[in-house]
Predict the 3D structure of the following.
Amino acid sequence: QQQVKQSPQSLIVQKGGIPIINCAYENTAFDYFPWYQQFPGKGPALLIAIRPDVSEKKEGRFTISFNKSAKQFSLHIMDSQPGDSATYFCAASPGRGSTLGRLYFGRGTQLTVWP
Amino acid sequence: DAGVTQSPTHLIKTRGQQVTLRCSPKSGHDTVSWYQQALGQGPQFIFQYYEEEERQRGNFPDRFSGHQFPNYSSELNVNALLLGDSALYLCASSVDRAGYEQYFGPGTRLTVT
């Protein structure tokens, strides 16, 4: 059972566009929601993360929007560039219990930004 | 400051063999987690090590085992390799067991033939 559901599977945008990737979860024990960027042949790189006590977090061109009541969160990439072409993973982690610190990943979104 | 390092980069093994993968955490981190990433999938949690003990395990058989050393580095061992064990094996480290801000290494690409 996939604990974090991610969509879309793939996304193509023009340079300067704003791709949006969505994730949903059910486990209310999750209290940490990171996004990772992965290039082919590389390990995932931590991009930005949010805790449930805020509804939005911005770091540079990357923004996370978080809706606690809907159990959904999304990544927005402002002014996207060809160098942003990569696979993006959302993840969630519980802050308590026997699975403390375990990251549950979505299936990933392959983003292509055309010049 | 070196990030998380892993060795080897690539490995080719035959079914039934055993393999050992190594990981050095980011400086200042004492918790190491291992993940398996199949092609086209998100990483799947294997286990977590803290204070030289396995603290939790994901849905992986006992053929997968690990170790953490006093300097916080870690090893992942896989016995009796199956074709389905072919994947990218990722090591992640964090400051503590809560796992906030887990940083991943480049991974070891294991191919089982």
The two ends of chain A are 38 Å apart (CA to CA). The longest strand of chain A covers residues 30-38.
